[in-house]
Amino acid sequence: MKNQMIWFQILPLGFAGTAFLVFSLIQNRIVWEVPVFFFGQSILAFSLLEAVNYLEHYGMERKRLSSGLYEKVTPLHSWNASQSVSNFLLFQLQRHSDHHAYAFKPYQVLNHYEESPQLPAGYSAMILVAFFSSSLVCNDESKAG
Fold first, then answer.
1. Whether pTM exceeds 0.85
2. Could you read off the pLDDT of 119-129 as tens digits, one per residue?
3. Which of 40, 53, 52, 42 is nearest to 11 (CA)?
C-alpha cells in the first residue's frame, strides 16, 4: 500500500489496539483506560495544533496581483511570538514568519524579523485566548441584549 494517508490512519489504531491487548493481558482484565487515554490525548493534540495554526495566521492576507495570483509569501504574512518560553518549549516555532518565507530552512536556524507582526503574548497565553475568547464575546453580547 503506497498511500501514506491510509498508513497514517492504520498505524495509530494498530498502536492503540496493541497497547490495549498487551496491557489487558498483563493486567488480566480489560484495560479500557488505554484507548480512552490514547484517543483523549489525540483530541487534545489535534486541538492544540489547530489552535496554534489559527493563531499564527489570524488576520493575515496576501495581496492579489493583477495577474490573479497572490503576492509571494514574506515574513510579514504570519505572526511571531518571541517570548523565551515559547522559544524553549516549541522548538523556535515563534519564528514562524521565517518558516513561511524560507520553508527549506531547518527549525534550528530560523531567524527573527523585527518587522514581522508579533503576538501580544506567548503561545500558552494566546491558546487560552483562542479557546475561550469566542465564548466570552458571546456571553458579553447576550448580557448586553
1. no
2. 888 888 888 88
3. 42
